[in-house]
Amino acid sequence: MLADLRSLVSVLKFGELRTSGVSSDVEPGAELLTLRVKRIEVHDLDLQTALGSVRAGSVELSNVAVRVPLSQSAEGATKRFPAVTIDELRLKDVSLAPLAVPLRGADGARQRWWLDPLGALDGTLHADIVDAAWIFDADVTIPISAGRIDFNRATVEHIGPDSSMGVSRMGVYVDAPNGRTYLILLSATHVPGAHFERRSGSLLPGWSDDRGSIELQPLLECLLSGVPMGTFATGTRDMVSRTRVRGEFRLGDGVIGNQRDRVVLAGRESGRNHVGLSSAPSGRAIVLTMPELSAADTHWELSGAVVATGALSATLSVQLDYSASTPAVVSVSIAEVALHEISVNPRPESR
């Protein structure tokens, strides 16, 4: 575990460290040393890790206990690694960038993802497209209700007759005055969450009785798990670079994550976990803001350790930078975050 931690954290710097209420004791039999610290304060923290850089203006830990086995066990040296508990951890002015978010496990296998809060997602997405492929600048409005995009409610407004959007077995399309244009081409025979258009007797593309719908949770869970669904049509990436988006959404409660790392969101009925979406001023980036992120608990498996927490609350923003030629880069800014009832233990060898 210690070797794993050294490979994870390559640089550790801080400006000031304060501790109070330090004590220690050894259990009868001299098998376990417990070190207790009532309060730890760290300022100007700078970590360089395998996942990216982590910087924090201040870090406060309350009631820290580190338990170190002193005797060699029959199972081997792993039993000598310490276990840590922390009543509360607070961080302010935190930045994490760039972040590597692997969608596959350490062995390269696909991971199953859960995105429960998307099943109750409500909100509206607006997109302003400059010099759109269907001749005119366009103002696109896509309502989302109970995690479902109903293309019968989506609107594409521009000069002249408005256009419409839909989803067929070929992909997601726009029916514009100059004909049908596909934005996304589907290659999979089964697309989770997709309900394809149903046409009337006419074969004309604009005469669909039902333009179809997409349930976001099953579709995105499948995509994150590594199952190929399709690709952007020719010209879509260029159009995205000329698009500015904005939106307000309310997430549901439940698990976000996979078998190793997950967060359980909670607080929808209290008005928490609202998400704001906007384009960054630089252009090729999307910014998500969450003024009141609220979770009931979290679980992480990182570099040989299992980290579990109780309640989490935070104010944060996430920026996703993208381009056609380079992988997407994620950066996170956190004004303040609080975690309660934290435990850190060695990951069982069976895992």
Question: What's the layout of helices and strands?
Answer:
Blueprint: H1 2-8, E1 9-13, E2 16-26, E3 32-49, E4 52-69, E5 83-99, E6 113-115, E7 122-129, E8 138-145, E9 148-150, E10 155-157, E11 164-167, E12 171-176, E13 179-186, E14 194-195, E15 198-199, E16 208-210, E17 213-215, H2 216-224, E18 230-232, H3 236-241, E19 243-250, E20 254-258, E21 262-265, E22 274-279, E23 285-302, E24 305-309, E25 312-321, E26 329-346
Antiparallel strand pairs: 1-3, 2-3, 3-4, 4-5, 5-26, 6-20, 7-8, 7-19, 8-9, 8-10, 9-17, 11-12, 12-13, 13-18, 14-17, 15-16, 19-22, 20-21, 21-23, 22-23, 23-24, 23-25, 24-26, 25-26
What can you tell me about this protein's structure?
The protein has a 20-stranded antiparallel β-sheet that branches. A 4-stranded antiparallel β-sheet has the order 11-12-13-18, with no helix packed on it. It folds into 2 domains: 1-109 and 292-318 and 329-351, no CATH class; 122-241, no CATH class. The protein is 6% helix and 57% strand. The chain is elongated, with a radius of gyration of 25 Å. It is mainly beta. It has helices at residues 2-8, 216-224, 236-241; strands spanning 9-13, 16-26, 32-49, 52-69, 83-99, 113-115, 122-129, 138-145, 148-150, 155-157, 164-167, 171-176, 179-186, 194-195, 198-199, 208-210, 213-215, 230-232, 243-250, 254-258, 262-265, 274-279, 285-302, 305-309, 312-321, 329-346.
